[in-house]
Amino acid sequence: MCDEEEGLKIIDHLNECATFTESGNFIDADTALYHLSHLASPHGDSMQRVATYFTEALAHCQLAKNMRGVPKVLRLVRALSTPEQQLVKKLFFDFYPFLKISHTITNQTIIEAMQGETAINVLDLSPSSNAEQWISLMQGLRERLTNTPYLKITLTAIHEKREVLEQMELHLKVEAERLNFHFKFNPVVSTLESLDPETLPIKKGEPLAISCVLQLHSLLAANDDEMVKIRVQRDFAEMLINQKNKKVNRSPDSALSPFSPCPSQKMESFLNGLWRLQPRVMVITEQESNVNGASLRERVCKALSFYGTLFDCLDASASRTLLGRSLLEKMLLGEEIKNIVACEGVERKERHEKLETWIPRLELAGFGTAPVSSNGIWLATKLLQSYVPGYHIHQKNKFLFICWEKIPLFSISAWKF
């Protein structure tokens, strides 16, 4: 068991290791890793457990900076198979309430936006293996549409694995037949990065809803040299605008700034493509975390705060001896930590940013804010009562945050064409 003093030592050693690694002082960084190896434990409390994966990530980071070929070889040795990927996603769904809350609020927001329609399109940019979200949507639609016996539902789902889409289609067609819906499934085998929204098989003219859960941030990954060049261009453009308007320069992290601190042409193009689909509603769930900085020490500090809280949630709700919990920590949370800390450029996919950065990015693409379903909030709050105390939903303006204690962990926002 780690006491408060040891917990502070862990944090100090992690920050020291990140600082030494970033500056190229690998001797002192190695010393910090040595101390961490005696304090961290995959079987200890939440701080010791999360420190295990940060220590491993920093070790990989040192390898990446010293020997470029070694980390690539290590990554080639073991990659999760499709069944393993689906397993860890299911474990995340089962152990935490976050996805259930997201699905509940997203579905209710879609149902209210589609009131009175006899044909709807849904675009799922983050399909789950068990299709649970869309089975719940169908059930909710059937409850609300007692006076509309006929409803045509077209679901377009994106996934890089065809077998995942085939399983989705199988489950959804069974449920659609049971509920007497006319159902069409459009499987699109693609990664989000290579997807052009305007080529999707979505029928123009029919009302469209878009759901994107914990996926958009991956589009922020870009070549580092390209990002620096774009950032310089953006900073110069903002300076000219501020001079013209005689305004004081704002921090690039300001929620009011239309210039992203980490610009991405890929993201801009993708959001513009979604806007041209003219969705009636688009619901986005993202990590309320800021781990997309250029500084390694900053990333370690921000990620430690976010993932440390996720480990605290598990400590409060699940036994440390559960096999599923240890698999979730190692195969999902640990791998995300490693990606944030040890990877750079296009390989760093886990580039979480806070909602205050997403708002101007989406507004620049043309989207306007839309209210989330009040009934969805009520149902989600009721759902949280089945979990340990500590989880709650905080509403600020039109936006929602799923929190542990006072710490926002995930944001849910709704947008319209």
CATH architecture of the largest domain: 3-Layer(aba) Sandwich
Share of helical residues: 40-55%
Q: DSSP strand (E) fraction?
A: 5-15%
Instruction: Count every helix, treating DSSP H or I runs of 4 or more residues as helices.
Output: 14
Task: Enter the CATH topology name of the largest domain.
Answer: Rossmann fold
CATH superfamily annotation of the largest domain? Vaccinia Virus protein VP39
Number of domains: 2
Overall residue-averaged pLDDT value: 87
Determine Rg (CA atoms, Å). Answer: 22 Å
Low-confidence stretches: 246-259
Structural class determined from secondary elements: alpha/beta
Family: Belongs to the GRAS family.
Organism: Vigna unguiculata (Cowpea)
Keywords: Nucleus, Transcription, Transcription regulation
Protein name: DELLA protein
Key features?
single chain, alpha/beta, Rossmann fold, transcription, DELLA protein
Please explain how this structure is put together.
This protein is an alpha/beta fold and 417 residues long. The chain has 2 domains: 134 residues, no CATH class; 220 residues, Rossmann fold. Helices cover 53% and strands 14% of the residues. The protein has 14 helices and 9 strands. Strands 1, 2, 3, 4, 5, 6, 7, 8 and 9 form a 9-stranded mixed beta sheet that branches. Strand 8 and strand 9 form a beta hairpin. It is globular. The termini are far apart. About 3% of the residues have low confidence. InterPro entries: TF_GRAS. This is DELLA protein. Keywords: Nucleus, Transcription, Transcription regulation.
